[in-house]
UniProtKB/TrEMBL annotation:
This is Magnesium transporter MgtE intracellular domain-containing protein. Gene3D superfamilies: MgtE N-terminal domain-like. Residues 39-80 are annotated as: Disordered. Keywords: Coiled coil. InterPro entries: Mg_transptr_MgtE_intracell_dom, MgtE_N_sf. Residues 85-150 form a coiled coil. Residues 39-61 have a biased composition (Low complexity). Residues 148-214 form the Magnesium transporter MgtE intracellular domain.
Length: 225
């Protein structure tokens, strides 16, 4: 136990020597700085005292803080992914996947709408072409009917000018449709002598068909009513 007692005076002596050296250094710094720095230090009590031999700290420049670190545009705190639980992360991943599917579906619908619009344009073009063709066909049919009517009127005048016996010989060999059209356009006073000179069976057949054709318009009118 004698060793610690002997070291105690030596330790105290060393501490006093260090304090003496420190006090001497501080006094030299105060003498070098003069009264002006002391006054400046008194005016700014909140600033920390500058260590001897330390360079003055430069003024901190304001650096822009990114939104992610500053908490976004509204000053909110940034979201730390570490704070999410596993279920929340899986939910976010599922929502992200669904969002991608919806975007893909929206693109597909947009493409289909474009295809439908193009198809509608082609259909409208075809309808216009068909309408033009229909007009042309109707014009041709009208022209054909006019030519046919003119030809029937010419033949009707020829047969009316013929003798009934000569006309009857020709009518016996004509097709029913052509013969009926001619007889319908001829005057009744011209038709009677021709039918009298025709073959009796042929004349009977033609007479029955003429009567049936005259009844058809009446039946059509009754059906419409």
């Amino acid at each position: 136990m004698g060793l610690p007692i002997r070291l105690l005076p030596v330790t105290i002596l060393a501490v006093m020597l260090l304090l003496t050296v420190k006090l001497g250094d501080i006094w030299q710094d105060v003498t070098r700085l003069g009264p002006a720095p002391l006054a400046a230090q008194q005016q700014q009590p909140n600033q920390p005292a500058q260590q001897p031999g330390q360079q003055p700290a430069p003024k901190a420049q304001s650096m822009p803080v990114p939104n992610s670190a500053a908490g976004g545009k509204d000053g909110e705190k940034p979201i730390d992914p570490i704070l999410f639980s596993r279920s929340e992360i899986e939910l976010l991943q599922e929502l992200s996947r669904r969002r991608e599917e919806l975007d893909q579906r929206e693109q597909t619908l947009a493409q289909k709408e474009g295809l439908l619009a193009a198809a509608e344009q082609r259909i409208e073009k075809k309808i216009g072409e068909l309408a033009s063709i229909r007009v042309d066909i109707e014009s041709l049919i009208k022209k054909y009917n006019e030519q046919e009517e003119a030809e029937l009127q010419r033949l009707m005048k020829i047969y009316e000018a013929m003798k009934p016996k000569d006309a009857a010989a020709i009518f016996n060999n004509l097709e029913n449709e052509v013969l009926l059209q001619l007889l319908e356009r001829m005057a009744e006073r011209r038709v009677a002598p021709i039918l009298a000179d025709m073959d009796p069976k042929r004349a009977q057949q033609i007479t029955s068909e003429i009567a049936a054709r005259r009844q058809m318009p009446k039946l059509e009118e009754a059906a419409k009513q």
